[in-house]
Design brief:
Layout (H helix, E strand, L loop, with lengths): L2 H11 L5 H7 L4 H11 L11 H4 L3 H6 L1 H27 L4 H11 L9 H14 L4 H9 L2 H6 L13 H11 L7 H10 L3 E3 L5 E3 L9 E3 L2 E3 L3 H9 L2 H15 L6 H11 L5 H10 L16 H11 L1 E4 L3 H10 L21 H15 L11 H13 L8 E4 H8 L7 H5 L6 H8 L6 H9 L8
Helix pairs in contact: 3-16, 6-8, 6-17, 7-8, 8-9, 9-13, 11-12, 14-15, 15-16
Length: 458
């Protein structure tokens, strides 16, 4: 594999690659490198934060005492912020790189939000557990997750009065895509999921008195179907494999679909729905490494932040500032904008967020500041954040670890640094700019490179 191909693989299957890792990989074959990625992600390490302050409170106390209930909700929301920060730290230092990348991908597919720290932490780890497994089992498990049952109103889905929210999104967003079902399919689908509920601990419970055990006709089949039966019927349709493969392709390969590539992926994925087999096929395909795919995707805000940290490790004195940054950039983990999730692609960038992205490396790593002379959505939000933190320069208290940078880039001369930090093709103006840029300080040159528009691409 070439230098650029390894970079490409590790940006799509992970969160970048440093020179030390590249040195170990450059003599390996494509198969060996891909095998290593999957081998390293065989294990599942759950992401858990300390919830001991909430563990000892009994359900009866919460239900009977309004004061306790409010305090529990308040503490739970704080813990969700802790989980957000812990997830960012995990992405920046993953043991199972590919599994963590897949977890992030599925989080924007099976979109969910919850205010209960136990239930949303459980949901997040379910994504992690099944991220490279059997998609059919994955969908069934997700349908029974307490956070999802609440998020899409399946608790209100009862025999006497079916709620169609989950049934509709199961078809539109999770399996088939819009326009591949009828309104009658949604109604029959919803009946199958009636009675889905959970206990206080988040364990799935079927309320039999609320479940419709009657006959349902769904996609031409008739029977006393339950939710699992419905999912089995959906996945018998090749359109489901088509829908998932297209979503995988847009995320890992290119925003523009290539029909021939999708057909190849569907052939591999259907009917067994093995996610690992699908992803191994994608990363092993010659077309994955085509030049038109390398450096052509805009980094998500999370990819951007994690990428910065993977080059120069940063410690935020106030962890909440990490969430403030996510908010300004337009992507807060565990807080999706809606059930459809983040659109991604060109939607990540607008006139305000690009200003922040270009200035952020200097702000975080060089104790610089952002000029607030111009008015606009980004500057207005930044002014408010500055005032809240009562600081004149920047609201972010960051300790950059330049020793980490020096250890990873020690053998890389300053004038070769751009080859490691910029993966996309440079335009003539950027090339001229870099040629005239001082290279006396590797640290300063690094910050300059991360402040370029090209750094936004992966």
């Amino acid at each position: 594999m070439t230098f650029k191909q390894i970079q490409h693989l590790y940006w799509r299957a992970g969160f970048g690659v440093n020179p030390k890792q590249l040195a170990l990989l450059k003599h390996k074959s494509r198969k060996q490198i891909i095998d290593d990625l999957f081998k390293a992600s065989k294990q599942v390490t759950p992401l858990k934060i300390n919830t001991s302050g909430l563990d000892k409170i009994s359900p009866k106390e919460i239900l009977k005492n309004e004061t306790i209930r409010k305090k529990v909700i308040e503490k739970s929301l704080k813990k969700i912020k802790e989980l957000n920060v812990a997830w960012i730290e995990r992405l920046a230092n993953p043991k199972e790189t590919l599994r963590e990348r897949m977890t992030l991908f599925w989080a924007n597919h099976f979109v969910c939000e919850d205010k209960n720290i136990f239930h949303i932490q459980q949901f997040n780890n379910t994504l992690r557990q099944y991220a490279l497994g059997d998609f059919k089992i994955f969908v069934k498990v997700i349908s029974k997750e307490s956070a999802m049952i609440k998020y899409l109103n399946n608790k209100q889905n009862r025999k006497q009065s079916p709620n169609e929210n989950f049934a509709r999104e199961l078809l539109e967003l999770f399996t088939l895509g819009k326009g591949n079902y009828t309104e009658q399919d949604i109604k029959e689908n919803a009946r199958a999921f009636t009675g889905y509920n959970h206990n206080f601990e988040g364990e799935f419970k079927l309320r039999k008195l609320q479940h419709d055990f009657g006959y349902k006709t769904f996609f031409g089949k008739t029977g006393r179907f339950n939710g699992d039966d419905i999912i089995d019927i959906i996945l018998e349709l090749k359109q489901c494999a088509q829908f998932i493969c297209e979503k995988v392709y847009r995320y890992f390969v290119n925003d523009s679909i290539n029909k021939n590539h999708i057909d190849e992926m569907v052939y591999v994925f259907y009917p067994n729905y093995n996610i690992e087999v699908l992803m191994r096929f994608v990363f092993s395909s010659d077309w994955f490494y085509d030049k038109k795919h390398i450096g052509t995707k805009i980094k998500s805000p999370i990819d951007f932040l994690v990428g910065l940290n993977n080059t120069v490790q940063m410690t935020f004195k106030k962890p909440n500032e990490v969430i403030g940054l996510q908010k300004l950039l337009g992507q807060i983990l565990l807080r999706p904008p809606n059930v459809a999730g983040w659109k991604g692609g060109k939607q990540w960038i607008d006139s305000n967020t690009i200003l922040l992205r270009l200035k952020l490396p200097s702000v975080l790593l060089n104790d610089s500041y952002i000029s607030l002379n111009e008015q606009g959505g980004f500057n207005d939000a930044f002014v408010q954040l500055t005032r809240r933190n009562n600081r004149k320069k920047t609201p972010f208290s960051v300790i950059p670890n330049w020793e980490f940078f020096n250890s990873k880039f020690k053998e890389i001369p300053c004038n070769k640094l751009q080859d490691h930090l910029l993966i996309c093709k440079l335009n003539d103006d950027t090339i001229l700019f870099l040629e005239n840029l001082s290279k006396s300080s590797k640290r300063e040159y690094c910050i300059q490179l991360m402040s370029l528009p090209e750094y936004q691409m992966c």
